[in-house]
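ingest -> validate -> predict -> emit
validate: passed (alphabet ok, no gaps, 181 aa)
predict: started
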Amino acid sequence: MKKIVFITGNQHKADYLAHWLRLPVTHHKLDLDELQSLDPFVVAEHKARQAYEILQEPVLVEDTSLRFTAMGRLPGTLIKWFLGEVGNSGLCKIADGLGSREAHATVTYGYCDGRDVHFFVGTTQGSVAKVPRGEHGMGFDPSFIPDGQSKTFAEMTVEELEPFSPRAKAILKLKEFLEQD
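emit:
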């Protein structure tokens, strides 16, 4: 299996990755430049290459995005700043005025071996809740309801979330890659 260091200061994200990979995960917190782009591949590649330059070993970075269909690619990769400014309640209020609550949650992992960056993406279609609900998860989880469900990600148990999690979908692709010789 290929060696990786997951770049995060979030123990919950590291634990989630370890759970899905079924392996212990070494993680390291780095303060990386947050490139401003609506293209998740540009953001993930920049972070992965920067982390590799600092650590000089294979690294894995994560970027999450939430796109409101009625807003094109926004908030997208800028979701961290939207949440910081308006919180989950504000996300729900923004959706009130859009005419459509449809949204897409995406997780993009970037693995850099020093030469190439490989991407692993998981996306879940859904909608923005009328009000934030739930105590589990992180980020926009209290605001996002996957298609065909009535609960937000933050209201779901780990077992309920499993078939819908964009993070889990991306990790399964990553696991296949890491297991290749």
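The CA atoms of residues 43 and 82 lie 16 Å apart.
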